[in-house]
Predict the structure.
Amino acid sequence: MKQQAMQNHPEEWFFLHNFDLDRVFRTIRRADYLVLFYIQTRQETDPEEKLYLTDLANTMGIRVTDLSKGIEKLQDQGYVRWLTDRDAGRTYVELTSKAVELMAEEQQYMKRCYARMQAEVGEEELRRTVNSLQKILQIFKEER
């Protein structure tokens, strides 16, 4: 799923995984957008298959309890539907049309920003800068 997300959504992947900045996103917090991004990517990959909360948590590498709090908030905001599969006895999530519209707007914004960075900084310099930033962030994580 990671490789497909990178290929299908390079601008989103860039902002979601290279910058830990809420300010990149204009209308939603980065953490909330990240959840929507993973749901959208899964729905694009397997549109007929239900995305169970436990599977989403495993894919994102977080605890189900932490994810459920975020899903509740996103549901309250009208971005996701949290449903129960009675046959399986499990809960699953899907995006609402409101989330799809929001993500389309944010995607266009990220594409414009990404294209401008490529044009003004250059692809190679941008790649080197991101690699340096990732190394720096890793040092901070290791030192905690």
Q: What stands out?
A: The two ends are 29 Å apart (CA to CA). The helical segments are 2-8, 10-18, 30-45, 53-60, 64-76, 97-121, 123-143.
